[in-house]
What does this fold into?
Amino acid sequence: PFTHTHTVPLAARSLEKILACAGKAEHWEEGLRLMNTLCELHEITLDARVYNSLILTLCNNGQVKVALRCLEEMQQSGNRASSFTYTILLKACDKEGFEEEILSLGEQMKRRKVVPNQVAKKILKRSRKSQATSSA
It folds into this structure.
């Protein structure tokens, strides 16, 4: 049997590729397990790009609530969520009809001074309008 005697460095970018492939094959759970195992073995700290890939994979596989928790973990680890990160989550929340989460993400963006792109602006505007209509 093959026995390896040294550790090959693994870049965080490799994790992005693993997540993307696992997500496209609809095996996000296995991809997440593999990512966690590799992070432990190779002592990899996740960066914003890997978190974005993870959030995108989760959202694309209908795991929006898990993706929202991942955003919290991302921020707690010191990584800054970008407009891209928020747009992924806003689109997924919009698709699922998670109005409260959309408004919460909008507030987070405002507090953290993240400028929304056009897609995010459209979703936030529609959600605010919907909230105003239902409150009236």
The mean pLDDT is 83. Residues 28 and 106 are 27 Å apart (CA to CA).
